[in-house]
Amidohydrolase (Sphingomonas canadensis), 487 residues
Amino acid sequence: MKRRSLPLLAAAALVLAGTAMPARAQLSDHAQLLAAVDGRAAQIAGMSRAIWGFAEQGYQETKSTALLQQELRKAGFSVTAGVAGMPTAFVASYRRGKGGSVIGILAEFDALPGLAQKAVPERSPIAGQAAGHGCGHNLFGAASVGAAIALKGWMDANGVEGEIRVYGTPAEEGGGAKVYMARAGLFDDVDAVLHWHPGDSSSAAQSLAMANVSGKFRFHGVSAHAASHPDLGRSALDGVEVMDVAVNAMREHVPETVRIHNIITSGGSAPNVVPDFAESYYYVRDWDPAIVRQVLGRVRKAADGAAMATETSVEFELINGVFGLLPNDVLGRLADANLREAGPPRWDDTDRAFADKLSKSLAEPRPIEEGQGVQPYSLGERGAGSTDVGDVSWVVPTVGIRVATYPAGTSAHSWQAVASAGSPFGEKGAVVAAKTLVLTAADLMRDPAKVKAARAEFDRRRGPGFAYQPLVGDRSPPLDYRRKAGE
């Protein structure tokens, strides 16, 4: 019989005697953290389902933010609410000791209008409810908070110095809360910021996002009876429509990477009344923020011309403006390794049945297995869409991951994504995200050289003399941007 080493015999004696060994001797940092997140899976799911049910739109997330703040306070975090002029934004922090790194974790929790849906795999709107979590921000905020609480426990158990900060960031969907938080300097003393996002696959690829500005054009005219006295009226809706024609003609003469989208948010109340008010909501995107500014200027000229042509007046309100993402390869490769260690979501037969039925409603159904792997790592590929995380990435080294929370082929901002975000299928992805966040944060706290390398890359990519100037200028947060015109 092979002789056992004395340390192993001693360890066994301690266990038999009921004497607990120090946490560091029992488990590695990563093993402790993975177990801690598994132990909080039910808490993460509970927070997520509650926020999914609240389904609150941008800057109206009073219940959602209160829940996340409550959980963080219970865990021993200090919370400052209403930061940067936004009632639903908050910063929660926990510090141990005087040294160590400051690691930020972003938490989103806003829903999208027009996507109310039950957590079932067939189209089933919720009566009396307008919004739904089509981008899965209920999962996002819950997993980030769960990760931060698990990280605090690990710091306490292992005597790790440093600070964790959770940034409660409302209104990502067009309201740009992170821009105002960055402008207020809330990230200036942070060493690294971590975030994640729901998706139809799992990846730590550090892709680019587009810069984006948005605004509302409000036309004012003169109302009149459309049959008996149309000559006395000046239609604000005509102003909107002429502007749209002018912008459509302009699309041929902008860089091919530019994207321009708009909706008419108000066009009158009755066909027989010449409308004296109409509103159009525009987005302009490009990879280069300078081009975004320039094209928006041309769109504004189209509005002025339309007002002149229709004898109406127009006013413009800048709603939001965000930078594209600045990637960080040092942090990206670290997150990639940790995502692979955490492993993709592990769905059971019930989850698979849900996904199979939901996938039948997709335009291009794909096998569920496509969402069960981790995609290859890459840096700097151009992705779609825009996010206010972009502004954060230009003021502090930032890294993000995506985790599968809805079946492969599902589009974000769809009822299918809403259904998945309210189900165990999505919640299992949120737990994977929390694991990846805590492993990455802990690695950075343990390895100051990695933090220093990420900062050096960040400084190099920004270039010498860079000074952050937000695209929103000095405007206040658009707290009412989700309200309907005229409310």
In short: The longest strand covers residues 211-220.
